[in-house]
Amino acid sequence: MTSISYTLFIIFKTLTLTLTLILFSIPITSSNEDNFSENLLETIISTRLMEKTTNLHFYFQDVVSGKNPTSVQIIGQGLGFGATFMIDNALTEKPARDSRILGRAQGMYSSAAQRDTGLLMMVVFEFTQGKYNGSTISMLGRNHVFDDVREMPIVGGSGLFRFGRGYALAHTVWFDPKTGDASVEYNVSIKHF
Prior knowledge:
This protein is of the alpha+beta class. The chain has 2 helices and 11 strands. Residues 28-32 have low confidence and may be disordered.
């Protein structure tokens, strides 16, 4: 690129950026008689200032065995590729199943890897205690269960976690290979309004 072409490119880019900033700072007026207007640039800035980050810590109790399992296989046989489980698991304060229940993990997970053990997790964490009562966060991602710590994305939320996005770190605290039952620690960081 010649120096003249580069200079013209920089001038064009600067003018485009300036025009964009001017357009975003012009109030937009609706057609009604109230003359409602909104400054888009101020809205964008104030939205960033209202955003919060919340860190959550809880345990996911996956119970496959017994008379009242909270994880039931609905597709496939065994644990091979395609096996899918519907869940309604307790979220507890501590690793023990009988500790205080904070909410439920509802959704499903499927064996989505043919060459290793990777689950596709589609889970809504619903909270039923304290200030988060009635709020949810949605997680959708890959869970490579034999890794010590797995990271999965938080893709949404409701209630106090409206417009939520973030990540969840999962760590298996205990797993019983005979029953398939497990307790998984979750540390979740979520940005929301």
